[in-house]
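Lab notes, practical 5.
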Amino acid sequence: MKKIILSAASLAVAAVASVSVVPTTSEAIPAFARQTGAACLACHFQSFPTLNAYGRTFKMSALTDVGDQGLIEDDGLSIPNVVNWTVMVRPNYVLSKKVDTAAVGATPASSVTTKNYDLADQVFMVGGRAGEHTGVFVEAGFGDGGAAQAAGDPAAGGGYGNMQLFNSWDMGDLKVGATLWSDGFGEDSGLQLMSVYGQHGGLLAGKKLTINHQMGANDASGVTAWVGTDAWAAQFALVDIANGGAATGLKYSPTIRGNYFLEAGDWEIGLGAIAVTGSSTANALPSTQGRDTKRYGLDVQAMGEVGDMQIGIFADYATAPAGSQQVANFYNNSYTDARTGYSFRVSVKPTHNLIFIAGIGKDKQGTTAAAGTTATDRTLVGVEWEAYQNFAVQLSTNIIDTQAIKTTTTLLDFELLI
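Output from the prediction step:
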């Protein structure tokens, strides 16, 4: 594992020496670029979707900031004079190898290799200002599901939709807001400002590595109230963990999320914590009483420069207590042991159009009725080349080792946003 990360670091050094510096910027959602008239790096660190300070402010302003784009305004009306939209075209090639390490040498079927070229995860996005204090982000995805499935997308193989309806008001130095949302970004989707996991942690599949992504609900909806400044934010949400999938009626799980940002020289440090409590009627096992929804997480990020090289450091930790045979925990199948895990990754941008990433993660789950204690180790290495501001080519390898089965997935991904 260490050799893989060191190899990635060596590759980054070699790239600095061999690749000419091309003055391109990072890929971002053109819908927002059209509305604000701002360059991609105005909102993003290194590349889309990682947020910088201005990107966080734009989000906390409910995506309403407008540059040179005209507005149609009247009493109770303030909208752009055009609809801002984006289409992402994403052809990719997937090579996956699955090995049953417990059966190696015992059966020829212990190793399976699959290759797939597909057009998964094509996305249509509409976003931006919907009123003086209101903004929206909506995306609809479709495709044959091959690469999305390899990337761990819960909606692989069919269409899916994400929606966030933001509202924000200035109260002195504070911004106060409320968000109605339904998506696959996690329980804190009402105001995600960090780039460790969730909506803004997706650079080179980085969020897939994180324990808060692996442990969290990837299909949920809710309503979130939040307050904050440039330095901090706090939110309280009521979340339908199953996104309407409960058989016995809705039951919302209270969620608290906090963030704090500070500067240390040329670096910006971000700290976060999340607590999901309550219970849900979703997937009620072993009875119809419902399930607890209890998990707790921490995340930290550091973004800055060393010389002319941009470096991002991202890490997180999460735990979910054991449930019981009467009331299980949605986030932990064990009745006896807590589920815990962590992740750590580094992204390096040595030139204007190259980004390298490497990281590790662990997810330790306790004893269940069907199996003993298990630990899933994850390793991620990858590189992104930005051909244009709106066109990136990504190559990544994701290794998932569950002690009995080891799966290695290599993804060559082309992302064009127009």
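Observations recorded by the TA: The radius of gyration is 21 Å. The first strand starts at residue 71 and ends at 74.
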